[in-house]
Design a protein that fits this description.
Elements (H helix, E strand, L loop, with lengths): L5 E2 L14 E2 L11 H17 L2 H9 L21 H14 L2 H4 L9 E9 L18 E8 L18 H26 L12 H7 L5
Antiparallel strand pairs: 1-2, 3-4
Helix pairs in contact: 1-2, 1-5, 3-5
């Protein structure tokens, strides 16, 4: 059974929709308010940055989507930064897809390195007899230095994913990028061997195999 193409309506004034803009299937990754429009904008960014389509470049320029390249020339020489307006969609999906991130404490970093307190020992509960004083205990802390590491995704797509698929293209790619980041974090967090491949991270499996406290 063929999917029904559904036209979308711009929810923000000033957004110029290409004639006959439709989506061919239900979106899986863009959620909430203006999901269709956000998928369209991300799809257009991908068409401009990956395919280098002149019409997509012009559309992005007219609709306030910046194409900030690492270097001049082809994208394979450096690629493009994803515009800030799409970052939260990727982060929200990454938080949902990744297991390690859901289980661990996440510390926001506003710069490349920060020093944070780390709990090394906790309070102790003692059996208390009648008319017996409770033994005092206290929490122990030290400090660790955190250094931010960057993960990146660079991709090529078939040129057959053309103008007619722009909304679903954007939805598909945002999900794939988020999955890639979540997978990289999980692999480093669980199986990292301390090499540069994992930004120097020793994962849980590595630590338990070597013996807790030996690394």
């Amino acid at each position: 059974m063929a999917a029904t193409a559904r036209p979308i309506t711009p929810a923000k004034s000033g957004i110029i929709l290409p004639p006959g803009t439709v989506r061919s299937s239900k979106l899986k990754n863009f959620k909430g308010e203006n999901a269709d429009l956000r998928a369209l904008r991300f799809g257009k960014f991908c068409q401009a940055s990956i395919f280098g389509l002149p019409k997509a470049h012009e559309w992005c320029r007219e609709n306030g989507i910046e194409l900030k390249a690492h270097s001049e020339g082809v994208n394979s020489a450096g690629g493009y930064f994803v515009p800030e307006e799409f970052s939260m969609d990727i982060i929200d999906l990454r938080d949902s897809y990744g297991i390690f991130r859901q289980l661990c404490q996440v510390i926001p970093m506003g710069r490349d390195t920060i020093t944070v307190p780390r709990r090394v020992s906790g309070l102790t509960a003692y059996a208390v007899g009648e008319a017996t004083a409770i033994t005092q205990s206290q929490t122990g802390w030290d400090q660790v230095r955190l250094t931010a590491g960057k993960w990146g995704v660079l991709t090529l797509l078939s040129s057959e994913l053309d103008e007619d698929a722009v909304i679903n293209l954007g939805d598909m790619l945002i999900g794939e990028i988020a999955y890639a980041f979540a997978s990289a974090e999980d692999t480093a967090g669980f199986s990292g061997d301390g090499s540069s491949t994992y930004h120097g991270i020793n994962g849980l499996l590595t630590r338990f195999t070597a013996g807790v406290g030996s690394l």
